[in-house]
Amino acid sequence: MTIDRRSFAAALGALGATTWWGSRAFAQPTGTPVRIGGSLALTGPLSSVGMVHKLTGEIYIDELNKRGGLLGRPVEWVLKDDQSKPDLTRTLYEQLVTSDKVDLLIGPYGTSAILSAMGVAQRYGKTLVHHTFGVPPLAKYDQQFYSWALGPEPQKTVPAIVFDALAAGNKAPKTLAVVTSKFPSVHFISMGVREVAKQRGIREVLFLEWDFGNRDFGPIAARIKDADPDLIWGGALGLEANQILDALKKIDYAPRSSFWYAPAPGPMLKAPEANNALSLTIFEDHPPFTNNPVAAHFTQVFRERATQANLPSNTVEVQAAASYSAWQIIDAAVSATKSLDDKAIATWLRANQVDTIQGKLRFNGPNNYGDDLSRVKQVQDGKWLVVHPKEWAAPGARLR
Predict the structure, then answer these.
(1) For 54-65, what is the mean pLDDT?
(2) Closest among 253, 238, 232, 227 to 162, alpha carbons compared
(3) Any idea where the domains of the chain sit in the sequence?
(4) Which controlled-vocabulary keywords does the entry list (predicted)?
(5) What pLDDT is attached to residue 265?
(6) What is the pTM for the complete model shown?
(7) Which of 122, 137, 177, 396 is the most buried (most CB within 10 A)?
(8) Between 3.30.300.30, 3.40.50.2300, 2.160.20.60, 3.30.70.2740, what CATH number should domain 154-281+376-392 receive?
(9) How many Cβ atoms are within 10 Å of 123's Cβ, its own excluded?
């Protein structure tokens, strides 16, 4: 099943009309808390993004408890720091299930950590809702559900929408440099880029890989400058994109065009050398996304709380939106089934769609993946603005 853009826009409007709770009164939750367990990268190389997910979860739980909690009970998030280490993540999820005895699970940040958590969830028959798993073919467990609407074949669909965006803006590349971390999700997408580029007649002039955790990008920058591509495709995670752009700046090279798959959103906005850089998104803090009143309320609260927390950016974008959507999935499934039973929740999710701030999500495709709702955004003068497709572009925005 596919959702055309016009139908999706109508669904987004209906979501705002039916789920806004701003003026309603709710009974205070009582009784034993519903405990939802998970970990995040609060320290280590992924912490710049992990903190965005932490703040988002805190906001959602605060709002949820104001609305009566789950099943009339207050909700408690049992959160642990996995330090950006997949092996530690596995241990922490074992603890959450066996020692902490949480009722439900929510996934960590990052594909490798989620895969570790997924193995634990499968061993104990727990449903796992997660938000940033980028290799759908590895998501074999039938009780896992993904909130970032990336579709079942992002290695094909993500490069396609990026190349389409460039072509629509009269910036179709003739040459391409693919530089990528070996981190599973970004590497998976980057390998797909090579195939899609070949099919479109785009000549690959450079392909480089680095081990996750690398901090010396000088040699990579030098190779990029020598290749001088029309487009740099960066399979970069977190601050890696900033580090590459900084290394390029030090050798007096400004990319003609660059795309970065999963950058740290705030730091990229603040780097002058990142102006006009492209990335992927499902939601940004501007219309038409914020025409949905639930989304508008979340973006306002996030802005206030992120400012108080001194986060590098105080605007909602793809990471916060995917995280918020994961909490919405849990909320919807528990409310619909009136149960904390993992199998009942999983059965309901496979059979139903869930309203989220990015639109209606479904889970009845390959490996419980649904539609690809990706858009292309660009850094423009310190803001992330969607530029493609045009019906989702920020008012007045176009590709630079």
Answers:
(1) 98
(2) 232
(3) 5-150+287-369, 154-281+376-392
(4) Amino-acid transport, Signal, Transport
(5) 81
(6) 0.89
(7) 177
(8) 3.40.50.2300
(9) 12
